[in-house]
Amino acid sequence: MTDANTTLPKTNSSPWTSRPFHRQYLMRQANNLFDFFEAPSLNPKGGFFELDDEGKALSAANSTRQVHGTTRMVHSFAIGSLIGRPGSGEMVDHGMDYIWNKHRDAKHGGYVWGLDDNGVTDGTKQAYGHAFVMLAASSAKLVGHPLADKMLADVTEVIERRFWDEKVGAVREEFANDWSQITTYRGQNSNMHLTEALMAAYEATGEKAYLTKAERIAELIIAKHAVPLGHRVAEHFDENWVLDKQYLGSEMFRPSGVTPGHALEWARLLMQLWILGDKRLSWMTDAARNLFRQAIELGWDTQHGGFFYTLDWDNKPIMREKLWWPVAEAIGAAAFLSAYDRDDYFQIWYRKLWDHAENHVIDHARGGWLSELTEDLKPTSRLFTGKPDIYHALQACLIPLYPATGSLTAAIIEAEHTVKQHH
User: What UniProt keywords apply to this chain's record, in alphabetical order (predicted)?
Assistant: First the structure.
């Protein structure tokens, strides 16, 4: 057991998530994030600005908007709308308009990666970006946005026709603007985020086909690859889904080796998928527990705290920077696992992770969460500049507040219905 006792004393064993103070703390942190991101992010020329550490636009003059950034803002503010945060609806409208009228490629179909005020800066069609378009459309549907159904139908058709490889049960990675092939690379990350989006689409529509695809991806990435690798999530593959351990790509989107943060993200997604699939695929809960434990055992820095960003295949750190998002994902996973597993391990880590976030990651002076720390937990910006997005941190604050029954958006709606019935 890494760096924490294995059992909680009876006097302190009730879950934090059931304590009124902790629940208020979580809602306050979520509200602080909305305060930090809402007004300064809104780009009057469409889409959203990325923010620096102070909460000002990184490049106000002619800002580049990437599709995953636009869509995550829509998803996050749809969550804001569902919990009753005033101002959220306009943010959703603003983002949906930009996705539909700018990111969407009216000529070739699909959604382009990057734009600025003058038009397309990167016209490639990325599976990763399309996964987030599906997530944004699904979340927007839950708040009744008029474009949501159209966008969800459109992106579903594009993913089905262009990206989905029925033979293997996963998506191809990327194409040129006109859908010609630019690489034979296959990646875990885009498929993981598509799993998240497919579950959200299933919850928003009730259409089983979305859930089936999500289960097939989990089967390939986790059951077929991660479990035999000692519950380490392999990131990079060739076109036949053979693992490429030597792969060197973008440090931000495709870092080499193993990324503990992705195992933590998968731990929660597998629990969600198990629940949405009527708890019939029992391998998922076992895999989720082991992915979480392995990410902690191998990825957590016992000296300084925080997760090393990447490890090599001998489990040694490659990139020793500590990023904000693995902590956020670990919190969500610990909350989910604690809801179904009586083992104190998950609750102990839930508390330890919030201790770490409170003392090192949350920027109490300026707002938001620090995106990157050095090995010994000093703010740095080797990989990330400023505070890249609200999405990971917001979900860490809100997932523990709602029933562990599926995606956060659907859980919020379910909780509201329960409250109504009691009145």
Answer: Isomerase
